Amino acid sequence: MAIGGKVTGPAHENTIIGSHRMRIFAMRFPPMIFVIPALMVALLMLAPIGYLIVRATDSGTAIPDTLIRARTFVVTRNTALLAASVAVSASLIAVPLAWLTTRTNLPNQRFWTVVAALPLVIPSYVGALTIVAAMGPRGIVQGWLEGPFGIERLPSIYGFLGSWWALTLFSYPYVYLGVQAAFRGIDPALEEAARSLGLGPYRSFFRVMLPQLRPAIAAGALLSALYTVSDFGVVSLMRFDVFTRAIYVQYQSSFDRTAAA
């Protein structure tokens, strides 16, 4: 039926509904030219996990025994403690640095912005080696102190302390870059309004700025923690047992891929 030059009726309504559903389908499902490569990448990323599952199941009943061993608990605790400590300390370094390079009249601000992110280009293993050479029990600093003060040996930095120190110094840029971008995205007028209402610099930061920075801080801290969990060079050099080092030692000592998995 045509009314006023427009076609109406059940057939026309069905056509409209069908075209609307097709548009919804096209919006929900991306083209296959994107879906297929994405699925291939996902399968390649899942391949190592699949290999570990298959290898671990070869041990049969040994899986529960391995999971409840005291050493497994110690390694898990060490890994969680190191990841959490590095995430917190990296955030405590990154947030003030981001504030200095975005919200102050720091001289040569662009220069310091680049310098603050430079640890990203230095391998953490190299950084840990430098820390050991400088601050080790018989390192460079001990040599400087031996003459005037007679200090023959510094306290050991191996273990948790050295691992935490090295990983914090070389992973804080993950937090710094995100927080710096968040600072630049916040309107300075909000802070100025808070100051005009009588809030001091600290209260205005914690009540106005910090709530808007929390997503960036959380994302950066998560990246820092994940980097810590995946690191092998630092914990190996510092002789601190976390998952990566424990897996490597297990495989190297017994050449047992099943136990390592």
Protein topology:
Elements (H helix, E strand, L loop, with lengths): L1 E2 L2 E2 L2 H19 L3 H26 L4 H6 L2 H34 L5 H9 L6 H12 L4 H10 L10 H26 L2 H9 L4 H30 L2 H6 L4 H12 L2 H4 L1
Antiparallel strand pairs: 1-2
Helix pairs in contact: 4-5, 4-8, 4-10, 6-8, 8-10, 9-10
Keywords, please?
261 residues; mainly alpha; 78% helix
What does this structure look like?
There is one protein chain. The chain is mostly helical. It has one domain: MetI-like fold, CATH 1.10.3720.10. The protein has 13 helices and two strands; from the N terminus they run ββααααααααααααα. It has helices at residues 10-28, 32-57, 62-67, 70-103, 109-117, 124-135, 140-149, 160-185, 188-196, 201-230, 233-238, 243-254, 257-260, and strands at residues 2-3, 6-7. The chain has a two-stranded antiparallel sheet with strand order 1-2. β1 (2-3) and β2 (6-7) form a beta hairpin. It is flat, with a radius of gyration of 28 Å.
How do the strands line up in the largest sheet?
1-2
CATH uppermost class:
Mainly Alpha
* Unreliable stretches: 2-7
Helix content: over 70%
Strand residues, percent = under 5%
Average pLDDT figure: 79
Topology-level CATH name:
MetI-like fold
Through-space gap between termini:
71 Å
Order of helices and strands: EEHHHHHHHHHHHHH
- How many domains would you count in the coordinates? 1
Shape: flat
Structural class: mainly alpha
How many helices? The count is: 13
State the CATH superfamily name.
MetI-like
Number of strands: 2
Kindly provide the radius of gyration, computed on alpha-carbon positions and rounded to a whole number of angstroms: 28 Å
CATH architecture: Orthogonal Bundle
Question: How does the major sheet shape up?
Answer: 2 strands, antiparallel
